[in-house]
Amino acid sequence: MAILKVIEILSNSEKSWEDATKKAVRHAAKSVNNIRSVYVEDHSAVVKDGEVTDFRVNVKITFEVK
């Protein structure tokens, strides 16, 4: 039986929600091993002068504890 934990991370990107998600996983992987999945719980964007300037995601990352 595996023991799994979930952490919540907020991330942003000037490119896309997908890039923000990838950045969150890359950052978590620096200190967390055995990442199994990422769940995008929420996403939003910042708009300035009628243009989207920042994509934001709130993700939950699941990893196995050994």
Could you name the ranges where pLDDT drops below 50 across 5 or more consecutive residues?
none
Report the radius of gyration as a whole number of Å.
14 Å
Written as H for each helix and E for each strand, in order along the chain, the element string is: EHEE
Q: From the 3D structure, determine the CATH topology.
A: Dodecin subunit-like
Distance between the termini: 11 Å
Major pleated sheet: 3 strands, antiparallel
CATH superfamily: Flavin-binding protein dodecin
Number of strands: 3
Quaternary structure annotation: single chain
Indicate how many domains the architecture comprises.
Answer: 1
Helix content class: 10-25%
Strand order of the largest sheet: 1-3-2
Going by helix content, strand content and strand pairing, the class is alpha+beta
Principal-axes geometry comes out as elongated
Strand content: over 45%
CATH class bucket: Alpha Beta
Figure out the total of helices: 1
Please tell me the overall pLDDT. 96
Return the CATH architecture.
2-Layer Sandwich
Word description of this protein:
- The chain is α+β, with helices and mostly antiparallel strands.
- It has a single domain, classed as Flavin-binding protein dodecin (Dodecin subunit-like).
- It contains one helix and three strands; from the N terminus they run βαββ.
- A three-stranded antiparallel β-sheet has the order 1-3-2, covered by helices on one side.
- A hairpin with a 2-residue loop joins β2 and β3.
- It is elongated and about 50 Å long.
